[in-house]
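Progress note, project year one: complex with nicotinamide-adenine-dinucleotide.
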Amino acid sequence: MSAPPLCEGRVVIITGAGRGLGRAHALAYAAEGARLVVNDLGVGLDGTPAADSPARQVAEEIRAAGGEAVAHGGDIATTEGAASLVRVALETYGRLDTLVNNAGFLRDRMLVNLGEDDWDAVMRVHLKGHFLPLRQAAAHWRAEARAGRVPDARVVNTSSGAGLLGSVGQGNYSAAKAGIVALTLVAAAETARYGVQVNAIAPAARTRMTERAFADTMAAPAEGFDVMDPGNVSPLVVWLGSAASAGVTGRVFETEGGRITVMEGWRPGPSVDKGARWTPAEAGETARGLLARADTPGTVYGAR
Ligand SMILES: NC(=O)c1ccc[n+]([C@@H]2O[C@H](COP(=O)([O-])OP(=O)(O)OC[C@H]3O[C@@H](n4cnc5c(N)ncnc54)[C@H](O)[C@@H]3O)[C@@H](O)[C@H]2O)c1
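Model obtained:
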C-alpha cells in the first residue's frame, strides 16, 4: 500500500507562487493533497508592475490536474494584501495550516551605486513581505489556540545564501534575507505556544531571477538529473509545511538539486572574560587570539 499524501486536507498559502520556486512548491503541495491559495502580484524582475498576475494560471493548472486551488493577486507587502490573503484561505476552505513566504524581487547594485529606492523596495518586498503575512497568520492561529483548537501550523520562510554568507552586488537583498533568518528565529520562539513551527530555506534553482546572471551553473543538462530544476527544492518545503515535520522549528536549511544542508547558524565561539575593562590595544590582541582559534566564516558569494 502506498503512503497517504503528506498534506491531505491541509490548507497552504504560498506567496509569489505564479512562477519560479513558488509555482513549483504549489504543484508539489497539491500533489501531496494540499488545498492551495496561490498568491502572486505579478511584477517584473525588479518589482515593476506587470499587466496580469500569473497566480490564476497556476491555480487553473492545479485544478485541471484534479487539485484544489484559488488565486490571490494582492501585494503581500501591504497590510491589506496580507490580511486578504489569509481571509481568502479562511473564506474558501475554513482553515489555514501552512504559510510559505516566497515572493520577492531583486535590485542588484554595488553599495556605492545602490539608490535609496532600491534599498527600500527590496527590504520592503522581502522583509516586510514576510512579516505581514506571518503576523496575519500567527494572529489567526493564536485565536484558534485560545479557542481551544490548538493548530498544527507551519510557516516556511525563504532566505538565501546571500543572507547567510553575503553576496557581492546584493547589499539590500543580503540584508533583507539575513533579516528573514532573524525573524524566523523570533517567530519560532514566540509562536510555539500556539502550535506553530517556523523554519526557513535558502534555495538555489533556475528561475527568471537566476537564469541570466548565473547562466552556466543554471543551465539544464542534455540528459540526467537537472540539478537546478526549481522542483528539486519543493520536497523539503512540502515536508516542513506538513504535520510530519513535528518538532522541527527555528532552523534554516540550504536546499539545491539533491543536496539538503542544515545551517548551524551563529553560536558563541572562543571567548575570554577579563573581568575588567580592556585597553583598545589589549582588546585587539585578545580579539586576534580568539580569531586564531575560531572557525573561518564561509566566503561571501562573488568575493575575489
Ligand atoms: N532562484 C534562486 O536560485 C533563489 C536563490 C535564493 C533565494 N531565492 C528566493 O526564492 C524566492 C522565489 O524566487 P524565484 O527565483 O522563484 O523568483 P521569481 O521571480 O521567479 O518568482 C518570484 C515571484 O514573486 C512575485 N512577487 C514579487 N513581489 C510580490 C509581491 N509584493 N506580492 C506578491 N507577489 C510578488 C513575482 O511576481 C514572482 O512571480 C524569492 O524570495 C527569492 O529571493 C531564489
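The beta strands are 11-14, 35-39, 68-72, 98-100, 153-158, 196-204, 252-256, 259-262.
The pocket of nicotinamide-adenine-dinucleotide is lined by residues 15-16, 18-22, 39-43, 75-77, 102-105, 125, 129, 158, 160, 203-205, 207-210 (CB under 6 Å).
No further modelling is planned for this target in the current period.
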